[in-house]
Design a protein that fits this description.
Blueprint: H1 2-31
Length: 32
């Protein structure tokens, strides 16, 4: 149970990081 509780939030964080990276890359391309 403890592992599942820890894995779920980490997966959400990784998803958020992925979205942020995509947005940052897209904004960087637009600026160039």
């Amino acid at each position: 149970m403890r592992r599942e509780r820890l894995i779920r939030p980490t997966v959400l964080c990784s998803d958020l990081v992925g979205l942020i990276r995509r947005v940052s890359v897209a904004s960087g391309k637009k600026q160039q």
